[in-house]
Here is the input.
Amino acid sequence: MLTENHKKPLVAFIILCWYNEDLLKECFESIQEQSYKNHITVMVDNGSADGSVAYAKKHFPWVKVVEAGANLGFSKGNNLGIEETIKAYPDVEHFVLLNSDARLHKRWTDEVVSFVSNKPTVATVQGTTLDYYNHEIVDSTHIYVARNGQATQGGWRNCYDGEFGPKKVFGCNAAALLLTRKFVDAQPFGREVLDETFFIYLEDVDLAMRATLMGWDNYIVPYGRDTISAI
Here is the structure.
């Protein structure tokens, strides 16, 4: 008989690693401590030579490690993680793109999965991300294109004064977002979910634009003071 947790959608955390051995412990432990238990974790290593792969395999054997063999960049590395996850776990329903320098509150996954459960055209969701060293400072509430044409993080460096929403936004910050499998399957570029011409940065702006043009939605989901992800 399936447990209650395993009746829930399977979520895959995709962690891109490049010389991040010193960051992996906090990141993986925050995943391990999630109250939402039906999840797997895939680490894509972009050719690190600092012991990241050996460290992950030794201390976190439940993490599936994919060795790219070279620095593929952010977009291609995450695309590889998504592709390998679908091969290994065809029933995966959501992906969480999570920076290795991020940690999540234990209810983060519960909250975002619950939010998208009855919304068939959601592409991405994020929570409020806070400065790693000072949780009174906002890192991102969403992304948008400013009037001068510059891609911008909503709320960046503002004082954190409580959550708002849920609110539909132009796009979500790829440092810590949930990406639905429905959107992955619906978008027309096959395995290239993130545009690989963006080696690093702006790939999430492109993703947001494509989702918007396709009629899909992106949201920031509020939690409360103690249910945030910290970057």
Remarks:
- Confidence is low (pLDDT under 50) at residues 224-228.
- The helical segments are 24-32, 52-59, 73-88, 108-116, 181-186, 203-213.
- The two ends are 38 Å apart (CA to CA).
